[in-house]
UniProtKB/TrEMBL annotation:
Source species: Lymnaea stagnalis
Span of the signal peptide: 1-18
Protein name according to UniProt: Uncharacterized protein
GO molecular function list: lyase activity
InterPro entries documented for this protein: CpcT/CpeT (IPR010404), CpcT/CpeT_sf (IPR038672)
Domain of life of the source: Eukaryota
Keyword annotations: Signal
Pfam families for the chain: CpeT (PF06206)
Length: 231
């Protein structure tokens, strides 16, 4: 399957994805922990099921999200993740995320949008074969306000802002407040024009599957596990 129509939406701050003038450094323990926690398949289905049982109706949508460490040949010097989100069997967000840590320990992420998600069903995109066809010359940087940022606030806890760079509504990108921990991603949808149903309470995405990090990330990365004692 040939992959076409991938568009970068960010050249982050002082760096641009694929910039070979700044070689990738060995990831810190903080960054490895973030990557390991982030690397998985998450779903809010359990939360919605509980809402239906207790209230008789759902407060949130059922959102399933894959955040998976991948290798993109067009970006060989970057740590990259594939993001896929779907609602009721419809894929509505597909991105490649380029992840770095700055000198202050802030995790900075540059998202690349797939311009056509309609031709894919959930799980259909092959993270190995389909990424082989992406060429760097197909990508061009645009809006700097699409930067995704996370900071570590406690052991195995990262809090950040995650703009929806696939949509432009009323002069801005809808933004989400994310908290990443051992077993969950909680996402607060506080913009009424967001793709998901907004709610006073956050979406609770439970980690259903954990993926190993790929060996290119760091020596022994495939065996790295954060020291989580969560139940």
């Amino acid at each position: 399957m040939k992959l076409l129509g991938l568009l970068v939406v960010l050249g982050v701050g002082s760096w641009a994805a694929g910039d070979d003038s700044e070689p990738r450094k060995e990831p810190s323990q903080r960054l490895l922990t973030f990557l390991s926690l982030f690397n998985g398949y998450f779903s809010s289905a359990k939360e919605v099921k509980a809402e239906k049982a207790e209230l008789g109706y759902p407060v949130h949508d059922v959102i399933n999200a894959t955040f998976r460490n991948v290798f993109v040949p067009a970006l060989p010097n970057e740590i990259t993740f594939y993001l896929e989100e779907e609602d009721n069997g419809v894929v509505y967000r597909m991105q490649i995320l380029v992840i770095r840590e700055d000198e202050l320990g802030i995790i900075r992420i540059a998202p690349y949008n797939f311009t056509d998600t309609t031709k894919y069903k959930p799980g259909q995109f092959d993270v190995t074969k389909d990424l082989e066809n992406v060429r760097l010359e197909e990508l061009s940087p645009t809006r700097p306000d699409c930067e995704i940022v996370f900071m570590q606030t406690d052991v195995n806890v990262f809090v950040g802002t995650f703009p929806d760079c696939t949509r432009w509504v009323d002069g801005g990108h809808p933004k989400y407040a994310f908290t990443l921990s051992c077993r969950t991603i909680t996402a607060l949808v506080y913009w009424g024009k967001s793709r998901e149903k907004d709610s006073l309470l956050p979406y609770d995405h439970r980690k259903i599957v954990s993926y190993p990090l790929l060996p290119y990330v760091a020596p022994g990365a495939e065996n790295f596990k954060p020291p989580c004692n969560c139940s």
